[in-house]
Amino acid sequence: SWPMMAGGVFNWGYYASQRWALELFVSTADVGKFYALTQITYSPISMAGALFMSMLVPILYARAGDPGNHQRIANVRGIVLKIASLGLVATFLLAGITFFWHEEIFKLFVAQQYLGLSVYMPLVVISAGLLQSSIAMGSILTSVNKTNKVLPLAIYGQSLIIILNMVLTHLYGIMGLLFSMTFGAGLHIIWMYSI
Question: pTM for this structure?
Fold first, then answer.
């Protein structure tokens, strides 16, 4: 578990840097707007992904069994890649829905003064969905006790995105931060797939 613990510090830095970047380079009001946006888009997707994975991981561990059994591990890998692929399909379907009905969704959940942020919903959905699919892929590594392979992603990947959060937020405000989040999620899934 130590690689996950060590990587957790960088994950914390990634999430904290979002608020810090907005506070430093934009305004406190934009911090509130950003959290209003993420609370109705990013958070539900993250919670749904975490709930699904908490149900699935024990099943994957049972199917994997002994990490030395290559056939069982290959079967688990196939299952996980199918789940991650379904997650990606669901992500882009949901992003399409939010692209067309973002204002209606925002009107249901958020105060009128935040309506201008609704156009960013598809980008946040893509960011959250990519990250959840990537986390699903990571369950392959935990099922074979190779969590140490995630450490470089947590250290170097998250450090890069922390810097990118700061730079893009400084240049483009909330939109820059959202691009940084989406780039980071894309980097995460590509890196996880390569592992």
Answer: 0.90
